[in-house]
Each structure stands twice: as structure tokens, then as C-alpha cells.
Amino acid sequence: MTTRTVGYLAFLFLAIYLFLKYLMGYVMPFVIGVAVAFLLEPVVSYLTAKFRIRRAPAAALVVVGLVAVLALLLSWGITRVAAELTDLYKGLPHYYIDFNRVLSELLRIAGDISSQLPEPLARVAQEQWNRIYSLLSVIVTGAGGVFWGVPGFAVTTLFTFLSTYFAMRDRAIIGAFVRSVVPSRVFGQIKNIEMDILSGIAGFIRAQALLVTLTMIANVIGLTLLGSRYAVALGLVLALLDVLPILGPGLFYLPWVIYHFAWGEPGFAVGLLVLYGVVSAFRQVAQTHLVGRELGLHPLVTLISIYAGFRLFGGPGLIYGPLTALLVKGMWGSGLIPHEGGANR
To answer: Within 10 A of 303 (CB to CB), how many other CB atoms are there?
Structure first.
């Protein structure tokens, strides 16, 4: 690898880092909208060719259909969850009493153990309890943040759908504008990697949606087999937690397991622990396989990009990392990054 190539790569990674760190939040709806538009482009092309309608009505019809499908799924989910939460509400007084008993017993046991420990170990134990308390505070604060974040999420969703519509409707106009402002040589190289990058982004969206759906189904089936009364509601909650890095559904599963162990139901607790382990292992293996396959990356490259992205950006880095690897791969193959054997020496 030449010094020039290293310099190009260093500049590229710095530019990508600065963009993702400081600008991505402002353009996220439009990036997602363009990716979804590319994903739905075959449907628009089919409607225009089959029924001989103009592109604008076809794009509007596709977006309306997408919104309708999502609305139906959301309506079904809310209806089912509301029914199960109503049943849960009836048993809350009983669960609250049980929870207080278990918590009091755990605090008593922890106090007895701490009083018998030497001073250094007792101090360490106290620090761990303080960390647990801080974690619970963060979880409670985060729950409130989710509520207050609903209006912002609604605005982002609205702009995403609008971006999807305009990107599909004016695809030719947008392409002509880009051609007019980009040098012809660079435009030709961009066209060479456009399909790879856009199809990779669309594939990544497919992979993530499929992962969340599969883990939700696995959780619902597992909880149903274990006899949980709130399998669907909990499955949806666990699917939402699944997008959190590292902890994910463990935020819910582990306290639940401890509760049933402490309350004398070891069989159900072991079942939950096994289900959590199986779903977590399946999720990790499926993520590497699906993301790597959709992006056309080697599994090792996928793992490295996911880990590096998480270390740099936290949770969003699980998405940023593989997409950055895809971008660099496309630019390398097209010759935009000069290297020995490349198209641009």
C-alpha cells in the first residue's frame, strides 16, 4: 500500500467520522428516505410499466401503501398489547407486594453479607450497590425520555416519508442535477459504485428489520411455551430493547430471572434464562451472517466494523460501522481511492 493510498484512506476516515459525529443527526431522515426509495424503486417501476401511470402517482401510491401497512401492524400491536396490559394492570397490586418482599429480602441478605466483609471488600460492595442504583436511575430517566421523544420521532418519521416520496418521484431530475455539478470523470466512478452502495444500504435495512422481527417472534414463541400471560406485549418490548447495544433484552430478562429464582419458581427462571441465551446467541450469529451477506462483506470485516463503530459512536455505531465498510469497499473497487491495481493510479 503506497503512501498516497494511506493518505487518501486517512482523509476519508476522518471525513466520515466528522460527518457521522456532527452532521448525521441533521440529515438522517433524508438518508433513510433515499435508501427506502431505492428499496421500493422496483415497485414504482412495475406500477408505471404495468398500469401506464405517471411516476408521481405511482410514488404516492407506494408511500401510501407503505404507511397503511405500517399503520395496520402498529394498530394490531397496540390492540394486543393494550389487552395484555389491561390484564397486567389487574394484577399489579399483587406483583407490587411480591416485588417489595423480594427487594427487602435481597437488601437484608446484602446487608448481612456487607457487615461481615473486611473494610476494603465492604467498600467495594457498597460501590457496586451505588452503581446498580445509578443504572436504575438511568433506566427510569430513559423511560421518561422515550415519552418526551415521541413528538421528535413523529417529525422525523414524517420527513422520512416525504423524502422517500420525492426521491422516487424525481429520481431522474436528481440524477441530472448531480451530473451537472460533479465532474464527468468522478460522476462515472460514482455511477459505478452507486448500485453497490444503495443496494447495500437497502440490504442493511432489510437485515436489521428481519433481525428485529425474528427475535420478536422467537421471544413470543418462547414466552408462550413457558406459559407467560403477556407473551406478545413482552415480545414487542424485548424487540425494542434488542436495538440497544450490549445489554439489550438483558435489561428485562435478568431481573425477571432473579425475581422468579427468589420467589421460589426455579423452573420458570431456568426457562427464561435458557430462552434469553438461545435468542441472544441466535441474534449475534444472525446479525453477522445477514449483515455480511446483504452488504457483500466478509464476516470478519463485518465483525470488525460493528465493533469499531460501537466503540466510536456507541449504539448508532452498530449501523455506522458496516455502512462505512461498505462505502470504503465501493470506493476502493471503483478506483476513487487510488491504489496499486486500481482504476486510478
So the answer is: 18
